[in-house]
Design goal:
The complex is a heterodimer. Chain A is α/β, with parallel strands linked by helices. Helix content of chain A is about 30%, strand content about 25%. Chain A contains ten helices and twelve strands. In chain A, the strands form two sheets. An eight-stranded mixed beta sheet of chain A has the order 6-7-8-3-9-10-12-11, sandwiched between helices. Chain A has a four-stranded antiparallel beta sheet with strand order 2-1-4-5, with helices on one face. Chain B contains ten helices and two strands; from the N terminus they run E-H-H-H-H-H-H-H-H-H-H-E. Helix content of chain B is about 70%, strand content about 0%. Classes of the chains: A alpha/beta, B mainly alpha.
Chain lengths: ~300, ~280
């Protein structure tokens, strides 16, 4: 469905070229939920925005991004517009700012449907609103964003992303800023959606990843360090960073990872996790590890498995 | 829909509303022909009785001051509304494009605006009004040339703050184009500062038009408040009403619009916690 090959995102800056995302390869299969997890600033959201060409103008994206047979990076803006919304929908983090404050939900939903060539009848709109778990659609559609709670706003954001029935949904930290009960409801709702379409889920929330994912990629400092099927990943992590990440979860030891991730302006010779890794070898400082296959459905970027 | 109103807004609406009504119904309200001179009745003092022929007196040519002021209010409002509409439209479009497109386009447009702002506004207006002579169009163009820069700067700033909001990105992710985003997402979100500036600008423009007329560069073929004040200058000691009456008309119009502008600003201010009166 979606294939990223050797994707590299760079920004020119006064300190030289910054590369927040480097050599990312991943595949999202049809009707699969693929999750990218990682800390803030590791480049997850940049990947999400690069797929539909939504990065700022000064960003340079190299590599190949295939949606079925189309190479999205070579398409014109006009061709991309026809893909946005219709074939790939997006849900953003922070629902309170991803809705226009001066229009009712109804007129915003109608606008989106009109834009993707669907007729916005009230029946259709009620149906879409109901599909994201909103019980009294007529009343909610008549409201403005400031009259809705965070949970409802995020449901509407999901409704907007799926309004034109795309085959693929990119959800960029959809549960950020929601309290735990609403988060669970939203997860259940996304779980229902995921049987019908492919989802690329970006999150730093391990619980969300655990509940929804079919496959998982762990990102660290702009690189994918481990890709595995969700069931295999949550029973055993290979990469030391992935393991530390799991150990930082409250249900495990709640052990913080020492140190901080390297800043993007920092050039790291060897493994980017080296200075925080408890298993560091001599070769970790000067040789950059490659992503190698270690199992049927598992790739790891670590010298310990090379 | 809830509409709230505050004290300065209601005073403003009352003042400006009366002046607008007076201007609309000037031909029916005016007791005399504003152009009719009566040299036997020059500089008659105001007599505020129901039967008096000249309630607010006459000027140095024996023309009815009330009638002239009523018609002059019309001209002032026409000038104010045309200048504000013209500069609101051009300024907003230019500023919005500048802020949205950014880069070199933004630089060029803003340097042009800076160039306009580096002249004292009144000076530019004086020069342009001088070139065009005493026509309404000339006066409107002169004042709009000064006024549009305010709208351009305000709308540019607001567009820049709105264009990076998530809902704009969300709309792009659903396939919306630039024109659609500007019209549907950005313009509706920048109307409140523009509305405040437009009402406050209304007062400024009317005052500026009166000033130009006072200096003899305004309209000569119609009664005009600034010109009427100027006419009364020579009789300030013997017949102060000739200057005072049109002056009070100017004050009422300008004050009215300024109060509305202030009120709107308070209403749109999200941090404002002052008491408001709910109307609807």
């Amino acid at each position: 469905m979606l294939k990223l090959r050797d994707v590299r995102i760079s920004f020119p800056s006064e300190e030289g070229v910054l590369v927040p995302v480097d050599t990312v390869d991943l595949d999202v299969n049809r009707n699969e939920t693929f999750t990218i997890i990682g800390e803030s600033g590791c480049g997850k959201s940049l990947i999400a925005n690069s797929i539909l060409g939504l990065l700022p103008k000064d960003a340079q994206v190299s590599g190949r991004i295939y949606l079925e047979d189309d190479d999205l990076l070579t398409l014109t803006e006009k061709a991309l517009k026809r893909i946005r919304g219709r074939r790939v929908g997006m849900v953003f983090q922070n629902p309170s700012s991803s809705l226009n404050p001066v229009f009712t939900m109804r007129s915003q939903l109608a606008e989106i449907m009109k834009y993707s060539g669907k007729s916005a009848t009230i029946n259709k709109m009620t149906e879409i609103t109901k599909s994201v778990g909103i019980d009294d659609p007529i009343r909610r559609l008549a409201q403005y964003p400031h009259q809705l709670s965070g949970g409802f706003k995020q449901r509407f954001a999901v409704a907007f992303g799926t309004a034109s029935d795309p085959d693929m949904l990119i959800a960029d930290e959809p549960t950020t800023g929601l309290d735990i009960t609403i988060k669970i409801q939203l997860i259940e709702m996304l779980a229902q959606l995921h049987r019908e379409r492919s989802i690329l889920l970006i999150t730093h929330d391990l619980d969300v990843a655990y509940t929804l994912s079919d496959r998982i990629a762990v990102m660290y400092a702009g690189e994918i360090v481990e890709i595995a099927s969700a069931s295999a990943f949550f029973s055993r992590q290979f990469h030391p960073y992935a393991r530390s990440l799991m150990d930082s979860h409250p249900s495990r030891d709640m052990k913080p990872i020492p140190g901080t991730a390297p800043h993007i302006s920092q050039k790291v010779e060897g493994c980017r996790f080296n200075d925080r890794c408890e298993y560091g070898h001599a070769c970790c400082c000067n040789k950059h590890p490659e992503l190698v296959q270690v199992d049927v459905d598992r790739f790891v970027r670590c010298h310990a498995y090379a | 829909m809830k509409i709230t109103i505050n004290r300065s807004m209601s005073i403003g609406l009352l003042l400006a509303g009366v002046m607008v009504l007076v201007a609309l119904f000037a031909p029916w309200l005016a007791p005399n022909d504003p152009y009719q001179a009566n040299l036997d009745e020059r500089l008659v003092s105001p007599t505020l009785t129901a039967t008096s022929e000249y309630p607010l007196g006459t000027d140095h040519l024996g023309r009815c001051i009330l009638s002239r002021a009523l018609f002059a209010t019309r001209i002032s409002l026409i000038i104010g509304i045309s200048v504000i509409s013209l500069s609101l439209f051009t300024g907003t479009v230019i500023g919005a494009v500048s802020g949205y497109v950014g880069g070199v386009v933004d630089e060029v447009i803003m340097r042009v605006v800076d160039a306009f702002l580096s002249f004292p506004g009144m000076f530019v207006a004086l020069a342009v009004a001088g070139i065009f002579g005493g026509s309404i169009i000339g006066l409107v163009v002169a004042l709009a040339l000064v006024e549009w820069t305010v709208f351009a700067r305000i709308s540019r700033g607001s567009v820049i703050s709105v264009k990076n909001m998530d809902f704009v990105l969300a709309s792009r992710s659903m396939g919306a184009g630039n024109l659609h985003i500007l019209r549907y997402h950005i313009l509706p979100n920048i109307t409140s500062p523009l509305l405040v500036i437009a009402t406050l600008g209304m007062g400024y423009v009317i005052l500026a038009a009166a000033s130009l007329s006072f200096l003899g560069l305004g309209i000569s073929s119609y009664p005009e408040l600034g010109m009427m004040v100027n006419d009364g200058r020579y009789f300030l000691q013997s017949a102060p009403h000739v200057m005072f009456v049109p002056g009070m008309f100017i004050v009422s119009i300008v004050l009215g619009f300024n109060f509305i502008g202030d009120g709107l600003r308070d209403i749109f201010d999200p941090k404002d916690t002052k008491q408001r009166w709910r109307v609807f």
